[in-house]
Amino acid sequence: MDSLNRYYILMNKMSSLTNQFLIAMPSLEDNNFSRSVTLICEHNEDGALGIVVNRPTNLSLAEIFIQLDLEQKGIDETDQVHFGGPVQSERGLVLHEGIGSWEYTLSITDNLGLTSSKDILNALANGQGPRSFLFALGYAGWSGGQLEAEIQENSWLIVPANREILFETPVDQRWNKAAAMAGIDITKISSQIGHA
Description:
- By secondary structure, this protein is α+β, with helices and mostly antiparallel strands.
- Helix content is 23%, strand content 32%.
- It is built from six helices and ten strands; from the N terminus they run αββββαββββαβαβαα.
- 34% of the residues are buried.
């Protein structure tokens, strides 16, 4: 548990969790977040916004484009739609590398953005959008102080976000691999951690 103790000391020194992964601890049993990895896209004193990056749905991106009546050229039929979180679950968001010049993009880093405008969907449908992206319906949101309280309750591990996990690691491996970045084998942590 030395790795876990070092991790908590480091976490307490952070002022913003933007561009960090929240990794659900085994004790977190909420259906929306159990065994999830969430990228924090924005965090400040007013709260936090994140996208769950390891919950594919049964929908394909091609099906979304059909629903939106977008002509498709050169799209990968296997691109999945992800459950991004329980807030505004009908809202489509594109997490992508390269900020670009889309109508509305929240810059997470100099090279990572979250876009909610339809122009990026048009570009993706035409094979002209970002090469590395994740399409999600909905997002995760926390009010001011809520996420910090959940962290204090041992609901989450926090590690710096990693593009390989976001865009290259198979979805079913993201939870374990993200935790391994903190030097932790999350499968060996008791689901009862932090409980008397």
